[in-house]
Amino acid sequence: MEEQLEISEIYRAAQVLRDVARHPVLIGPTRLNQEAQIYLKPENLQHTGAFKLRGAYYKISQLTPEERAKGVIACSAGNHAQGVALAATANGIRSLICLPAGAPISKIEATRRLGAEVCLVPGVYDDAYQKAIELQHEHGYTFIHPFDDPKVIAGQGTIGLEILEEMPDVEAVIVPVGGGGLIAGIAFALKQLKPDVKIYGVQAEGAPSMALSVRSGRREHLNSVSTIADGIAVKEPGLNTFEFCSRYVDEIVTVTEDEIAAAILALIEQQKLVAEGAGAVSVAAAMFDKVPIRGKKVVCVVSGGNIDVTILNRVITRGLVKSGRNSTLRLDVGDKPGMLSGICNILAENGANIISVTHERNSDLTSINGCILSIEIETRNNDHIAQLRKALTDAGHHVVH
After folding, report:
1. 159: helix, strand or coil
2. pLDDT tens-digit readout, 157-193
3. Which of 95, 303, 323, 327 is catalytic?
4. Model-wide pTM > 0.85
5. For residue 20, with 0-12 CB atoms within 10 Å meaning exposed, 13-18 middle and 19 or more buried, which class applies?
6. How far, rounded to the nearest angstrom, does the alpha carbon of residue 302 sit from its chain's CA centroid?
7. Is 327 assigned a catalytic role?
8. Catalytic residue among 52, 107, 198, 322
9. Nearest CA-CA partner of 207 in 187, 185, 228, 184
10. Among the four residues 14, 22, 69, 338, which has the most C-beta atoms within 10 Å?
């Protein structure tokens, strides 16, 4: 792969993308982690809402006249599809995107709106990929890989150049990892120009293909993936990207679904930024001390913002629970007059806001004359929840959960 990519090509990609891609400036320092200076590279503000435009556009811009005449094909359920569609249309090239038939209607329509022809394939991503390869051989299209292509990697690497240009003294960069194209480009660019900078990759706990691969020293294939960070739910890393991560990335860590949700919520509340799950994993790693960044100047790449609004409410609720802003206390209480009033008074005196109250009189966890009281409350943080538990316990109440 060394022979296939040099730093000069990333500079060339930056020239091609100069008037095409947005170059969002760093945001910060933020208060996302009190122990470090955390800055954000908000690629969620990129055209099409994600970094993918960079690699797709550069790859397509380098096609030969013969390749341009035949058109391009890609397979994606999300950001890559829109990046390829926009890049192909801007270059006057026909594009065909194979999408799983169950892809969100909003993504299908967004891809069409950007000028691509859409081929809906029954099944999942892997079925759409096989169909794309079949059509490529049949019609001679150029396949635009979402991550495992040197020119796509070079396009993504322009983010590394921009970070270094704006913050020459950056000490660590945290990057989301799916197939590995984004971190491959950023890590290659930064390590060539500033070898002492630390590069940390982040995957979802339910899709840790690159983390496992780097650990074992060979590419691992996952049988299944499950995460709200669908943009990085990749079963197997690329051949090229695996080599890059093995050579240039200092560590790859994972974050939980609750940590991702908390990061999405923090970005909305503190920075007024909407990030999708895949885009927020870098921030989650910084917030929950998954990487050694104490006292350092750090940039988190927020890679995309195309979150499905239908799940945003659920994500926010999970984020509130994880950050201690919402909690449900369960108490085993005697079923007698005035008991609920006393408990409510204790919660009110300690600054909690009650959202809902539920009685379970027939629970097998209680005595015959007792009941389980579930109280959902709004709180300030996890320390506040601990304070409420102590106040209730001190008053003689039995907090079950």
Report:
1. helix
2. 999 999 999 999 999 999 999 999 999 999 999 999 9
3. 303
4. yes
5. middle
6. 7
7. no
8. 52
9. 228
10. 14
